[in-house]
Amino acid sequence: MKLFHSPASPFVRKVMVIAQETGQTLELLACKVTPVQRDEAVAAGNPLSKIPTLLTDDGPLYDSRVIGQYLDAQHDGAKMYPDAGPARWTALRREALADGLLEAALLARYEKVLRAADKVSAEIVQGYMEKIAAALVAMDAEAGTLVGVDAGTIATGCALGYLDFRYPDYDWRSEHPALAAWFEMFSARASMAGTLPHQ
């Protein structure tokens, strides 16, 4: 399996962590994808020209949640997406919350980085930052139940790691100590330590 990736992408990181946690190896393919620049190699497998995009014997797959479930179906160990019952819906809900935080963080960054300074909308950035803050409150409220490894905890860890990477001055830990303690523990996993985002 071949994965179009960027080492800075939190959605790619989610896929890489799931692959490591399930004992699978991915061949990483470098690419150059931005909101304003298509990569034709990626677009050949994904018309949206977005990452992550996974090339498999079953054809190309895209979106980290789709790829994650595909990888989860390829192994016989502990499932990253529980098969049924409350555990499945909790993992999916947590993944959706973390992905929503990431989308807001990415859009806020794009607003500030890709636009000319005089075109940046402070109101739009503030709206995205409010979504991030609300997501952190919800995550902190259930930090004590973030146990084990599944798609929800992986997505949560990758979301918090992205905040540290792209928003180093955003002191989320002081207001969310329970979440910070969980993140410190979860970040020590080999799959997380080995996939730290970088340029």
Task: Describe what this molecule looks like in 3D.
There is one protein chain. This protein is an alpha+beta fold and 199 residues long. It folds into two domains: 2-72, Glutaredoxin (3-Layer(aba) Sandwich), CATH 3.40.30; 86-189, Glutathione S-transferase Yfyf (Class Pi), Chain A, domain 2, CATH 1.20.1050.10. It is 52% helix and 8% strand. The chain has eight helices and four strands. It has helices spanning 10-21, 40-43, 64-72, 86-113, 122-141, 151-166, 177-186, 190-193, and strands at 2-5, 27-30, 53-56, 59-62. Strand 1 (2-5), helix 1 (10-21) and strand 2 form a beta-alpha-beta unit. The longest helix is centred in the middle third of the chain and has 28 residues, at 86-113.
Query: How do the strands line up in the largest sheet?
Result: 2-1-3-4
Radius of gyration using CA atoms only: 17 Å
Number of E-type strands: 4
**Residue ranges: pLDDT <50 for 5 or more in a row?**
none
CATH topology name of the largest domain? Glutathione S-transferase Yfyf (Class Pi), Chain A, domain 2
Question: What are the key terms here?
Answer:
2 domains; alpha+beta; 8% strand; 8 helices; Glutaredoxin; 52% helix; 4 strands
Show the helix and strand layout.
Layout: E1 2-5, H1 10-21, E2 27-30, H2 40-43, E3 53-56, E4 59-62, H3 64-72, H4 86-113, H5 122-141, H6 151-166, H7 177-186, H8 190-193
Parallel strand pairs: 1-2
Antiparallel strand pairs: 1-3, 3-4
Helix pairs in contact: 1-3, 1-6, 4-5, 4-6, 5-7
